[in-house]
Amino acid sequence: PLALYAFSNSSQVVEQVLARTSSGCFGGNDGFMYMALPSLPFGGVGASGMGRYHGKFSFDTFSHHRACLVCSPCLEKVNAIRYPPYPDSKKKLMHWAMGSHGCTLL
């Protein structure tokens, strides 16, 4: 379910309901206080929800995390060793630069 609430005078009953069930949100002796806390995610499990929403969780859910690497074009002369052709002199220099690990692509 999207949310599950357990109300009881016994904290043991509330803890058992929490431990034995699965839900997107759980409220023990409270129905809506978690909605006031943006640090808690809101969302269901299974057919009741896709993702987590609320505060930063909304931003993370609807954001595309992308790794980016931008290199300066002025380094291309230094990087020219990466590109073919690979004469023996280039291979030796690359093996030296990589240490004893070598490169299986060359």
Low-confidence region ranges? none
Structural category is alpha+beta
Tell me the total number of β-strands.
Answer: 2
**Rg from Cα:** 28 Å
Distance between the termini: 55 Å
| DSSP strand content | 5-15%
- Write down the domain tally: 2
Q: What is the overall silhouette?
A: elongated
Q: What is the string of helix and strand elements?
A: EHEHHH
Spatial strand order of the main sheet: 1-2
The biggest sheet, with number of strands, parallel, antiparallel or mixed sense and barrel status, is: 2 strands, parallel
Q: What average pLDDT do the residues reach?
A: 76
Instruction: Tell me the helix content.
Output: 25-40%
Count helical runs: 4
Keywords:
2 domains; 4 helices; Aldehyde dehydrogenase family 3 member B2-like; Ald_DH/histidinol_DH; single chain; 106 residues; alpha+beta; NAD; two-stranded parallel sheet
Please tell me about this protein's structure:
The protein is α+β, with helices and mostly antiparallel strands. It has two domains: 3-61, no CATH class; 71-106, no CATH class. Helix content is 29%, strand content 8%. It is built from four helices and two strands; from the N terminus they run E-H-E-H-H-H. The chain has a two-stranded parallel ribbon with strand order 1-2. The mean pLDDT is 76. Keywords: NAD, Oxidoreductase. Pfam families: Aldedh (PF00171). This is Aldehyde dehydrogenase family 3 member B2-like. It comes from Carlito syrichta (Philippine tarsier). One of its GO terms (cellular component) is cytoplasm.
